[in-house]
Design brief:
The complex is a heterodimer of chains A (14) and B (257). Chain A is 0% helix and 14% strand. Chain A is mainly β and 14 residues long. Chain B is mainly β. Chain B has a nine-stranded antiparallel β-sheet with strand order 6-2-3-4-19-18-17-11-15. In chain B, β17 and β18 form a beta hairpin. The chains are: A mainly beta (14), B mainly beta (257). The interface between A and B is medium-sized, with 13 and 23 residues.
Chain lengths: 14, 257
Amino acid sequence: LAGQGNITSFFSNG
Amino acid sequence: MLEARLEQAELLKKVVDAIKDLVQDCNFDCNDSGVALQAMDNSHVALVSMMLKSEAFSPFRCDRNIALGINLSSLTKVLRCAQNNDILTVKAEDAPDVVNLMFESSDSDRLSEYDIKLMDIDQEHLGIPETEYAATVTMPSPEFQRICRDLSALSESVSIECTKEGVKFACNGDIGSGAVTLRSHSDVENPDQNIKIDLTEPVALTFSLKYLSNFCKASGLAKSVNICLSNEVPLLVEYGLAANSYLRFYLAPKIGD
C-alpha cells in the first residue's frame, strides 16, 4: 500500500 | 425495541453483498431515523457509510438507540436463506444479545426465523465533513463497473481527471496504458444511460482500482452512480437507494503521483 493515503487522516474522529 | 420490515429482502441482501468483502464486523446503529452503518476496511483506506432511512421500512419502530454488532459473514449466511422477494422483518430488544430476522414468502405460507448472535464492536466513528465537491460525475453504474474492471487488467491504479471536456479514467501498467473518456450525454428515451458532469474546477486524482472494483459490487443496487471528487480529499462513490437512503464509499487518494 505504498503511496496510499489513509482515510483517517482526512476525516476527524467524531 | 427495534422492529423494521422491508418489503423485499433483496435490498439488505444486496447491501451486505456489496460491503462484506470490504468490512467484516459492523455496528448497525438503529434509532428512530433508521438504520446506519459506518465502517472502515482493515487498512483504513476506504470507508463505507450506509443509511437506510426509516421511510425505507414499513413499518419501522425503534424506541431508543440500539447498536447491533454483526459479523457480516454470519449475516450473509442467514440472508442466503431468504428469497429476494421475501418480506424481511428485523427485530431486536433494547439491550439485545441476538438480532432476529424473519423471512415471509409473499406468495406462500412459508415463514422462516433466524437469530444471529451479536458482538460487542468497539468501532471508531469518523466525522465526515460536508463537502462541496469540485466535480460530480453521474453515470450508469454498470459503465463505471466495466471501466474499473477493464483498467484493472492493466494497472493497479487509475487516474480520474475531470475537466470541462469530460471525465477521463486512465491507467499505466507493465503491458501498456489505457484510457476511457466520457463526455456529458443525455438520452431522453433511456435516462439510465445519462452521463452528467457537474464541474466547478478541474480535478485530477489517482485511486486504487482494487478498492474501486470492490465498490462496484454495489452496482446492482442502483442504475446510476455518483462519483464525487475534489483535489486532495477522499473520493465519494455513492449509490442512491429508495426513500433517500444510500450506500456510500469513501476512498483515500493515492499520494505522491
